[in-house]
Amino acid sequence: MGKHIHNLNPTFFLGVSNIFGLASALLLYKATGDDIDDGLDDISPAAEKLVAELKEAVKRLSTEDAARLTSTDCRQDLTKAARLVWRKTVEAFYENHGYSAGEPLRPDHLAVQLAFASSILREAAMALARDDREEVVRYLKLFSRFASAHLIPTARGCTNGFTALITELTEYTNELVRPLLVEEISRLREAGEA
Predict the structure, then answer these.
(1) How far apart are CA 192 and CA 194, in angstroms?
(2) Distance set, CA 126 to CA 115, 119, 132, 133, 144 (Å)
(3) What is the fold, at CATH topology level, of the domain defined by 7-38+45-190?
(4) What are 142-153's pLDDT values in tens digits?
(5) Handedness of CA 176, 156, 11, 107 (dihedral sign)
(6) Which UniProt keywords apply (predicted)?
(7) Which of 20, 103, 145, 166 is the most exposed place for a label (fewest CB within 10 A)?
């Protein structure tokens, strides 16, 4: 097997995927009024502090506030007319990439967006494990586009401790992904694969 992209191994992206997935689950539990399942403790020691902060921040949200963490409710950068159709825009993005939002939350809800980001990063981790550079690039591009267009603006627009942590995590991951993409696309072009 060849050298992993930028000396990262699949475990890194799998770990980040797990954190996005955990954040999605915590928010889903809160938004639907269910108890937070504390059986989500299989987290790496490096992520324990962030996970504890996420759990505490979501506990401070009311069920009603958690249910309103949507692009439609939070994105003040969009006009009223744009916010009315934004839910369909997010849903179309999912569908164009083979993902279905499902119920009980709307497709533009932050928990659904976090689940989608988790899924993308898990696919990137699996492609890294196979050393499938083209697939890694495809999934990391997808993550970067989704994070920039949907996840970061939604999290930034909702102002509470939970979304501040999500904004920070997503921006950090996106900042890490961009140079990897540039490096890997250059490498693929040199090899005549891109």
Answers:
(1) 6
(2) 17, 11, 9, 11, 17
(3) TorD-like (1.10.3480)
(4) 999 999 999 999
(5) negative
(6) Membrane, Transmembrane, Transmembrane helix
(7) 103
- Condensed to tens digits (0 to 9), the pLDDT of residues 39-86 reads 455 556 667 788 888 888 988 988 888 888 988 888 888 898 888 888
- Other beta carbons within 10 Å of 62: 9
Residues with Cβ < 8 Å from 46, sequence gap 6 or more? 15
Nearest to 172 by CA among 19, 30, 25: 19
Q: Which ranges constitute the DSSP H helices of the chain?
A: 10-31, 48-60, 63-67, 71-74, 80-96, 110-130, 133-146, 152-157, 161-190
Model pTM score = 0.85
Exposed, middle or buried: residue 140 (CB in 10 Å: 0-12, 13-18, 19+)?
buried
Q: At which residue do the structure tokens 């949200």 appear?
A: 61
Task: Tell me if residue 70 falls in helix, strand or coil.
Answer: strand
Mean pLDDT for the chain? 83
The residue written with tokens 């839910």 in the block is: 87
Q: What are the extents of the domains in the chain?
A: 7-38+45-190
Please tell me whether residue 109 adopts helix, strand or coil conformation.
Answer: strand
Integer Cα distance of 172 and 87 in angstroms: 25
